[in-house]
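Much of what follows relies on a compact textual record of a protein's fold. Here is one such record, which you should read through line by line:
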Amino acid sequence: MTLCDEILAIDNSIRFVAHLDKKFELVEMKQRPGVKSLTEEKTDEEFFGLIQPIILGASSKFEKHLGNLKTIRLKYQKASIVFFSMPDAIVGFSMERGPTTPIIDKIGQRFKVDLK
């Protein structure tokens, strides 16, 4: 089972997962089976492959003043996108509208990563 599969298995509201390595190279992207994408695959690749290092890279500039970056959450009308870092990976996922905190807490518990 891949990292994307494990994250998709955590909650049915997770629609899509992108796994990048620590050099921001795309390892895998996976859409939940039976869930229609809200964007085109090329858009997903560009967003998670380019924007993620920019968002995380820019945000990490505050770490020396504010502590370790835990999550970045983008809430749109149709879905939310969450980014977080693990020891060996960077993950971005999209989920249905609704509260993001319970899902992020489940992911943190599953992978023993402090996302709170």
Notes: The first strand starts at residue 14 and ends at 20. Strands lie at 14-20, 26-31, 71-75, 79-86, 89-96. The two ends are 26 Å apart (CA to CA). The chain has four helices and five strands.
